[in-house]
Design goal:
With 298 residues, this protein is of the alpha/beta class. The protein has a single domain, classed as 3-Layer(aba) Sandwich (Rossmann fold). The chain has 10 helices and 12 strands. Strand 4, helix 4 and strand 5 form a beta-alpha-beta unit. Helix 1 crosses helix 6, helix 2 crosses helix 3 and helix 3 packs parallel to helix 4. The longest helix has 22 residues. The two termini are 21 Å apart. The model has no long low-confidence stretch (mean pLDDT 95). The structure holds NADP nicotinamide-adenine-dinucleotide phosphate. The site of NADP nicotinamide-adenine-dinucleotide phosphate (NAP) has 22 residues, from helix 1, helix 3 and strand 4.
Length: 298
């Protein structure tokens, strides 16, 4: 176990017990990178003074903010838990920025592509320089997406800060938060075209950003390309993981009427910046195929 008992560590995780943070913990253990996972029940890291003390004691190379509020089952839950959502997705990144800048501490914030909807008019994906278009300012978003976009606004021009945007995480291990698990369990599916993120590749690519000392700033951390729900279903069938006949909503309108409380972001992100920086993630169809080939239920 490399979760350090001693004070110093290479990486300090905030919210590392969550779905995304757990993938970082697994990666750090496998790669024998020392880390500490800070939980709110141990130290209330939403309190600036307490966070500052921990950073001064542990002197991590990099702080990774994997804390956030995503809703228990999906983003619909955020509509009923707005205080938690605002605190974790908007206020907390602002607090971490202040503390880290004051200590000149490098850090990374886990953000989301859900602050975009659609594509450019020519079908290309959004780049890191595009203005988010699924936000409170555009008045078209879910509460979750609005708080994530505001969180990013608070980080504009932050010193020594990576913003890693992932999108719809999937994994080869069955889990209620895993997109592939959701596909397998939902009664009906909505056919959309999306960018996706294979979680084990994401954490490796993210850590590579730091190890290679890529310039700080925003990076789209999705598998290159895009994929439709029907294509994912076809890959599920081909893999043999599930042979059932999947049922689809007739339209997004029907999905909104029958199954959702708040609008969803369906979007494609451009991954050229990460690729040009020399960090490769697998093309999305190949990555989904690989996850399904290694499918594990717990
Ligand atoms: N899962 C996704 O689909 C997805 C997609 C794109 C981006 N992201 C982003 O990735 C980050 C982590 O998401 P996740 O899926 O790992 O979330 P998660 O499983 O719910 O874990 C988030 C962690 O955040 C901490 N936290 C801090 N303040 C909180 C609050 N007010 N309410 C609830 N938890 C709070 C908790 O850690 P402690 O209590 O242990 O400190 C919790 O374990 C979030 O910023 C999210 O927006 C997630």
């Amino acid at each position: 176990m490399l979760e350090e008992q001693r004070m110093t560590c290479t990486a300090l995780l905030l919210g590392g017990s969550g779905y995304i943070g757990t993938a970082f913990q697994e990666f750090f253990r496998r790669e024998r990178i020392s880390y500490r996972n800070l939980r709110r029940q141990e130290v209330d890291y939403t309190n600036a003074a307490k966070l500052r003390t921990v950073l001064q004691e542990t002197k991590p190379e990099l702080v990774i903010n994997a804390a956030g509020y995503t809703g228990q089952f999906n983003v619909d839950d955020c509509e009923a838990h707005k205080t938690d959502c605002l605190l974790a997705n908007t206020i907390l990144p602002g607090i971490i920025r202040e503390v880290c800048e004051n200590l000149q501490q490098p850090w990374a914030h886990i953000s989301s592509g859900c602050i975009f909807t659609g594509t450019h008019a020519d079908g290309s994906g959004f780049t890191e320089t595009d203005e988010p278009n699924f936000t409170f300012r555009k008045n078209n978003c879910s509460f979750y997406s609005g708080t994530k976009a505001f969180g990013e606004e608070l980080l504009q021009n932050a010193d020594r800060c990576y913003v890693w945007r992932l999108r719809i995480p999937f994994h080869h291990v069955d889990h209620p938060r895993n997109y592939l698990t959701k596909m397998l369990r939902y009664e009906r599916l909505l056919d959309t075209r999306q960018s996706l993120t294979y979680l084990p590749e994401f954490v490796e690519a993210a850590w590579n950003c730091w190890q290679r000392r890529l310039p700080f700033g925003t990076y789209h951390m999705t598998n290159p390309g895009s994929i439709t729900t029907r294509e994912v279903v076809e890959l599920i069938h081909r893999s043999g993981v599930c042979k059932k006949e999947f049922i689809f909503f007739a339209s997004e309108k029907e999905f909104m009427q029958l199954a959702a409380k708040t609008p969803r972001s369906n979007c494609i992100l451009d991954t050229g910046k990460l690729q040009r920086a020399g960090i490769a993630m697998t093309e999305v169809h190949a990555s989904v195929t690989r996850a399904l080939a290694n499918w594990k239920t717990l």
